[in-house]
Amino acid sequence: MSVVAQQASQWTDRDVPRHIAIVMDGNGRWARSRSLPRHVGHRAGVKATKRIVEACGKRGVSVLTLFAFSSENWSRPRQEVGMLMSLFVEALQREIDELHDNEVRLIVIGERSSLSATLRTQIQQAEELTCENSGLQLVIAVGYGGRWDLVQAARCVASDVERGMLSASAVDEAALSGHLALAGLPDPDLFIRTGGEHRISNFLLWNLAYTELLFSDTLWPDFDDSNLDEAIRIYASRQRRFGQLEEQLGASPG
Known about the structure:
It is a single chain. By secondary structure, the protein is an alpha/beta fold. The chain has one domain: Undecaprenyl pyrophosphate synthetase. It is 43% helix and 13% strand. It has nine helices and six strands; from the N terminus they run H-E-H-H-E-H-E-H-E-H-H-E-E-H-H. The chain has helices spanning 3-8, 27-32, 38-58, 78-101, 117-130, 146-162, 173-177, 225-237, 246-249, and strands at 19-23, 63-70, 105-109, 137-144, 190-193, 212-215. A six-stranded parallel beta sheet has the order 3-4-2-1-5-6, with helices on both faces. The longest helix is centred in the middle third of the chain and has 24 residues, at 78-101. The protein is globular.
């Protein structure tokens, strides 16, 4: 058994992040390094996604949010966008029954108006099928952007003020966050980005305010249980102060 695996077996509930958010980066580079077409890398990325969803469920993670397709990704070549959308439809059809059997609740966030009618229907059906499940909450961000999220939340708050349901002076963090895509869910404790890039790329701009950030050089198709365990180990070793002094929290990390 590896050192990380030994540590994982000793983790407490406090050590494991309640909510993990991941930018799954590196599919194209993974394929290019093997002289393979990009779509092969994306299919390998789907396999990695299934692997990590299962691993998070086993480790007691409550919420897993995956950045599958950003609002900026629409600017990619039409052929690749079409392939990604088809892959998403295919994966949804193939995996939803197993997710449901394992009590996983599926939630999809993002601007759906740009998605095909077929995909919107499948998403709605999948969410309705799993809405009562009590296990891992799996959030998939499709057509999502953090700035879009803030703008649509601000519009909702402005509408409430305009209709007299809320006074301008009563607009606070709770009023705005209540209209964000992740409303009702805890903010991420741990953010992971694979593929070696060190940026959050317009992902969950509001919700990542106090999230622990971790950047991995591992390309997403290669990211496995051991990489996840290492990320959790690093998270568990950090002290989250939320603006307080270390002396206020005690010396122990967590």
